[in-house]
Amino acid sequence: MPSSVPSFAELLGQCERSAVHLELRDSYAPTDRFEAWKRGERINWEDRESWWHPYDQLITDTVARDVAIRRARVVSEPVSDYIRWEHHVTRANVTAGEEVRWLPRRRATSIPLPGNDFWLFDGALLRVHHFSGDGVVVEDEITADPEAVKLCSAAFEAVWERAIPHHLYEI
Length: 171
Description:
Strand content: 15-25%
CATH superfamily: Endonuclease Chain A
Helix content: 25-40%
Number of domains: 1
CATH topology: Endonuclease, Chain A
CATH architecture: 2-Layer Sandwich
Shape: globular
Radius of gyration: 16 Å
Number of strands: 7
CATH class: Alpha Beta
Distance between the termini: 43 Å
Largest sheet: 7 strands, mixed
Order of helices and strands: HEHHHEHEEEEHE
Strand order of the largest sheet: 6-5-4-1-2-3-7
């Protein structure tokens, strides 16, 4: 049975002004790329073809339409290996056109944060990620509920204002 949730590409394709992503977990489901990184394999950033993915092109194309894409990550310190890896691969996000910032969790205490990661499109439509305990996405929920949108928008902006730009956040 097909999913009633629009794909990320569809949601981003309909976006006119902004897409923001708040990430709150210290680890997600392991991937082959993460496992390779743990074995010491590193990305050859000079060989763009080896690391450029359809996601990166989607971001680049969206930014070319004057849609601002911002990602904020709230992380515990010292950071987990997964966050170390995310920091390493974030170069691809930035190259594609995302603005990325990092907020140490200890600096987020006074921010009312939602319980789940989310994308917010044009400040009006939420795609909420629901994870299992081991970081696997079990469901994506789409909502335009005004209260949820308001909470998530305010949380993202509060995190963004306190967060450290990617190029300045040292791990």
